[in-house]
Amino acid sequence: MALSSLATLCSSPPVSAVRDSPAVSNLNGLSPVADDAAAPSAFLRSGGGGGDLKEIKQLHCRVAKKGPTHNNELIAKCAEVGTPESLDYALKVFEGWKEDECVAGSLFVCNSLIRACSFAGLGERAILVFVRMLEMGVMPDKYTFPFLLSACTKVSWFREGVQVHGAIVKMGFAGDMFVANTLIHFHFECGDVVDGRRLFDKMPERNVVSWTSLICGYSRRDCPKEAVSLFFDMVEAGAVPNSVTMVCVIAACAKLQDLKLGERVHSYIGNLDIEPNGHMVSALVDMYMKCGAFVTAKRIFDCCVERNLVLYNTIMSHYVKRGMAREALAVLDEMLEQGPQPDRVTMLSAISASAALNELFFGKACHGYILRNGLQEKDDNINNAMIDMYMKCGESGLACTIFNSMSNKTVVSWNSLLAGYVKIGDVRSTREIFDEMPERDLVSWNIMIGGLVQESLFEEAIEFFRMMQREGIKADKVTIVSVASACGNLGSLGLAKWIYHYTEENVIERDMLLDTAFVDMFGRCGDPKMAVQIFEKMEKRDVSSWTAIICAMATEGNGKQALELFKEMLTQGVEPDDVTFVGLLTACSHSGLVEQGRRLFQSMEEVYGISPKVVHYGCVVDLLGRAGLLEEALDFIKSMPIEPNDIIWGSLLSSCRTHKNVEIAAYAANRSPELTSDRTGIPVVLSNIYASEGKWSEVAKVRLKMKERGMHKVPGSSSTEVNGVVHQFSSGDESHPEMSRIAQMLDEINCKLRDAGHVPDLRNVLLDVDDHEKKFLLSRHSEKLAIAYTLISTGQKMPVRVVKNLRTCSDCHTYAKLVSKVYDREISIRDNNRFHFFKEGFCSCGDFW
DNA sequence: GTAGGGTTAG
Q1: Domain coordinates of chain A in residue numbers?
Q2: Quick check: A784 and A790 in contact, CB under 8 A?
Q3: Which 8-state DSSP code applies to residue A139?
Q4: Going by C-beta distance under 8 Å and a sequence separation of 6 or more, which residues neighbour residue A543?
Q5: Tens digit of pLDDT for each residue in A483-500?
Q6: How far is the CA of A823 from the C1' of B7 (A)?
Q7: What is the pLDDT of residue A44?
Q8: Which nucleotides along chain B are within 7 A of a protein C-beta?
Q9: Which of A145, A155, A794, A817 could hold A123 in an S-S bridge, CB 3.0 to 4.6 Å?
Q10: What average pLDDT does the structure give for chain A?
């Protein structure tokens, strides 16, 4: 942590506003001992201008009786000082001016005053001066208008600007190049691209500023392509770009995120012999960062000795965006030691960095600094960023205090709060805020949908997506990434196809992230062909894209293909991450590739420097257990350097079930920490193992234990989609409206299967009842209900797709195989672990799962 | 005298 920064941030002299701050009481308690002497002087500087105003007043007293000429002197002095106070003072003097006091030189003074107002960003005062000078009969000249118009532009006073434009034309100054240049700028800032361009085209002669205004205008109006192409036109036309032109065109390249183009434009700086300045360095660093050329950007930053505020802010914001929050704070450290005084943009990055690092202490220090310097006044962004920071640091109370104190809550303020509650996982508050919002935009919906997905409320996420459509909000790629994830988790191929077509029909921008989400979605929905098709068409693929396709292969049970893809990924120079290994190990496990799995696990740390997490150990336990190597799996667990969790023991247990090993099962169950927690997986599996071996007294013991702890078994449930409607069945469920037809069908299937030689495996019934009852219960497993319903509700040869919440039992597996043959239907069952594709009596898993 | 870089939420 940047301690010196903290010390400095906390030791600045407080102003009255700090006392009213919600955070301040805490901050005062936390602040290191104030040591003003150690703080950089810039930090202690007060507002400035107070002394100058005193000087102005003294001057006023001295010249008061000397006549009108001296008023000029006084106003010129005010303009020179240029603070709001001094300009107000000038206006007051100006107000008292009488017409006959105007003398030669007054026009010059008025122009200077308007110029000063424009510089200070005080458009209103500039207009006042202009109106007053007209009243007094001081006629403006061509020097009056550029600053007057630019003052209007700066404060977005477009109505007044249009009036000024009228005055310009009436008074005959429209032909002046300087005035025309300002008019171009004004029109572009109004959003009036066409008129701006027309003005440029009509100019009889142009200078570098004319070109630059046009290039800048296009770039800022989100037409960076036109901006860059105009730059080349300009060079072609023989006009010589200067450093301002370069800044504008570099900014346009940054917007395009086109590194090649950026480098080409960069080379002009040397070729045209343009002296590099601070503005240009900042623009270049920003451009290279936005184009992903981090090393080049960093080199330019490091080489620059005279680092100005914007350059620091640029590098800081990019560090934060790239997840390098510590580095961002190190930059702040350097600024506080030697550099320019941090401003509101600096603090926005500092707050973001605090939020990313969960550094509440530092965040509060930033809050204090912001209040002491009044940076939060008139700046909603700062307040919004602080809401975000406090929410991320777990201080929802402080976040709400800031939120409630804001007089001008924008949709962004609401969204920041909303996103904060999503991050804590507080679905109820999120929903309440969402309902309470006076206005919702695309981001609000995206936060809500993303939040529901995060909380595994996939159906609700889809429902919100539909609601969003009904309200006429057009989804973007961020929405679709969340929705695709929801579809993938629901495993509904119909929904997946629908959302995919929605994206194509609505021409929603595709990027690597979205394509990767689609690959993942189709992988999970049992359409690996589609996943591969999308993957192959991708222009750029990162580690997540490769991982998604590897996982798709793993889910399908295509271990060999998964390993092939991994090889290809390495050839293309993409480094695997820990998630990639989850996919690879799962793939090996599902395909019985024990040796390959062992080797991959070994290589994780040795070759790729990735320390295995619990989930990877779980995969290996699964790999060994499924292959029947239960002793080795147990030894492996015993040798783990980290504490095995419920999932590890659960995985071993379920292998014990498959391979009927009661001893190891009992051992594992007793080691599992879950028996003392309130989740149910392990006791259920254990009781199932005892049940399948007919050890009913043991079953009763485990069940009693569960009951005492208030646990209950999660009921098996399967869903299937028929004509776009999802039908849900739970085990033994008779509530479906078409239950009598389903029962009839179940009987028919049972007869046909019996004729085909199928004997129900009654060990799958985990209750102590007679065989007749067992047969009945077995025939009502949820996947069987779903299969039967789909068979009677869909046409011949239509595939049957079932999604199950638990692992499918061995009887249902055999059942599905035979149904696929007897009824000549392709059947897929996605259980909580993988896909099974049944066709002509065989399953894609090769009975290995 | 006109034109320029960095900005919060998904």
Answers
A1: 218-304, 728-843
A2: no
A3: -
A4: A574, A575, A576, A577, A579, A580
A5: 999 999 998 899 999 999
A6: 63
A7: 23
A8: 1-10
A9: A155
A10: 85
